[in-house]
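It is worth pausing here to work through a concrete case rather than discussing structure prediction in the abstract. The textbook approach is simple: state the sequence, then state the predicted structure, then interpret. We follow exactly that order.
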Amino acid sequence: MRRIVIAFCIIATSFWTLTAYAEKGLKLPIANFLDLVRGESANVSLVIDPRSIQLDDKRVITLSGVDFPDLNPYQPGPFAITAQGILKDMLEKKGVNVYQTKNGDWGRMDRLGRQIGHLERKGDKAWVQGTLITLGLARVMTDQRNPEMSEAMYTLERQARAEGIGIWGKDEYKRI
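Step two, the predicted structure:
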């Protein structure tokens, strides 16, 4: 029961944070994707979990460069639950642009056949990974196959850490 209450409080806070952005006239993070290749655009049909998005053409996109420290597939933590709720609100039934590494032979697919990429919501150009990092719901975890957006992501992570937003307000994550 305590876990449910904590999750609800975090979800309410995160939605408030997302709403507060709009009310203050602030825009969600946008990105310069010049170092990436734009793939096919599509509508989001389902947010599977905080790192996996299914498009209406049945492609599954794994979000590149982000990690959710309390994401356990059997018992997700409150931040992972909040991230998934934010993504559902932000993306389901909406169009997205998919951006992937320029290296066509390495880094566009994971071992399960899902595409790896960055997502940009059509219309307002909100960068999905940037939004999750800004809200303190994800931390940066790039790899050698997809390093292109790391500088922009680390900048957003440093800001969220400095402000103690989301996971960065919890002692167990401050040291990571």
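Step three, interpretation. The radius of gyration is 15 Å. The helical segments are 2-23, 78-91, 128-134, 150-163, 171-174.
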